[in-house]
Amino acid sequence: MLTQGRHMVLAAASLLLLLWHDAASIEVPQDPKILQDLKQPPTIITQSLKDYIVDPRDNIIIECEAKGNPVPTFTWRRNGKFFNIAKDPRVTMRRRSGTLEIGFRSGGQPEDYEGEYQCFATNEYGVALSNKILLRVSKAPLWPKEVLEPVVVSEGSHLVLPCNPPPGLPPPFTFWMSSAMIPIPQDKRVSMGLNGDLYFSNVLPQDAHTDYSCNARFLFTQTIQQKNPVTLKVLTSEC
């Protein structure tokens, strides 16, 4: 009797497992008519980066795309206030989209549009918000012209040649070269820090040159600015 009961329990468990497997295999039909009529609140699907740096030579594109049913309408806030796009002739919004395009053929400067932007996608079932997008224009300030005095150190000394690149946006990529644009060799003894400074763990006579120059390459403008060269003189025991 006990054995028969066990068989009945196992049979019931097997039947439940079979029914569960069949139910899991059932696919919901993707009827376009049903999907078309399915009402959904807006969802943001594309947006610009939170920290958005733009090239001053190009039109400014601030992305905001959303899905929803009915199709969402879009509005923007700039620096916390309603951004009235219709009153600005330089700003257009793409059709069935919240993406903004700002052009400068009629005048104006990209810097005029720096600030914090946020997109709102709205339909009768809800509102979706983009990230707050901080828009900034890439900058490549000029290196100040200066006359650098020769650096004089004793052989075997520790030395740092400062770079101090101009504070561009985004920060420039720095590297050291001679005035003839020949790279300064680097190894375990001579290396460049994250801030662009050139470090010598111990100075050797062959380090003496008249044209150590720090260079800054700016990403967006694709320009390279060269700092005035500095002369390094090494005092040896023979001097």
Account of the protein in words:
By secondary structure, the protein is mostly beta strands. The protein is built from 2 helices and 19 strands. Strands 2, 5, 6, 9, 10 and 11 form a 6-stranded mixed β-sheet that branches. Strands 12, 14, 17, 18 and 19 form a 5-stranded mixed β-sheet that branches. A 3-stranded antiparallel β-sheet has the order 3-8-7, with no helix packed on it. A hairpin with a 4-residue loop joins strand 17 and strand 18. The longest helix is centred in the first third of the chain and has 24 residues, at 2-25. It is elongated, with a radius of gyration of 32 Å.
In short:
The protein is mainly β and 239 residues long.
What helical percentage do the residues reach? 10-25%
Calculate the terminal CA-CA distance, rounded to whole Å. 111 Å
- The oligomeric status of these chains comes to single chain
Share of residues in strands: 35-45%
Number of helices: 2
Total E-strand runs: 19
**Computed CA radius of gyration, to the nearest angstrom:** 32 Å
**Outline, from the CA principal axes?**
elongated
Query: What structural class do helix, strand and pairing data support?
Result: mainly beta
Q: pLDDT below 50 for ≥5 consecutive residues: which ranges?
A: 22-28
Question: What is the helix/strand order?
Answer: HHEEEEEEEEEEEEEEEEEEE
What is the overall pLDDT average?
86
The description of the largest β-sheet is: 6 strands, mixed
